[in-house]
Amino acid sequence: NHEKANNQIEKFYQIFKDMSFKISFADALILMPKFASILKALIGNIEKLSEMALTLLNEHRSTVLLKKLPEKLGDPCKFLIPCDFPGMAKCLALADLGASINLMPFSVWKRLSLPDLTPTCMTLELADRSISRLVGVAEDVYVKKIIP
């Protein structure tokens, strides 16, 4: 158990050697409560502490240490964009967030009198784990985006 503690302290020395921060030592203790016992042992070895006092802290480690990480956001589920087509009261299109696939209800495709679709047997599993069977694929369809 003593050997395990020494290994942990040595690992902490190594990690601590790679970082530097511009806050008081007391603030560092407050921000790192899980390392309190290791820091106490470190204080007992002044030579190592002095050696590590001059190391620099990169931006990533500073952010983690000061708890300035951005808030994690949840999955937006379905992201729908309202579309305005002549002769249609309301239409929502599923926005593509990077998959290079854009979906449109087949009923909307037919009402817009767009070119024939190339048949496909492709299915898509959506974020909510539902399966959508595609009627066909359209390529090179001109889309005009108007951003308010």
From TrEMBL:
Superkingdom, natural source: Eukaryota
Keywords on record: Nucleotidyltransferase, RNA-directed DNA polymerase, Transferase
GO MF, one example: RNA-directed DNA polymerase activity
Full protein name: Reverse transcriptase domain-containing protein
Originating species: Tanacetum cinerariifolium (Dalmatian daisy)
